[in-house]
Amino acid sequence: MSEGREQDQPEEREGASRPVTAAARRERRASSRPAARKDAASKSAKSDDESEDGAKKGRPTKARDNQEKRPGFIARFFRFLREVVGELRKVIWPTRKQLVTYTGVVLVFVIFMVALVWGLDVGFGAAVFKLFG
Question: What does pTM read for this prediction?
Answer without folding.
Answer: 0.38
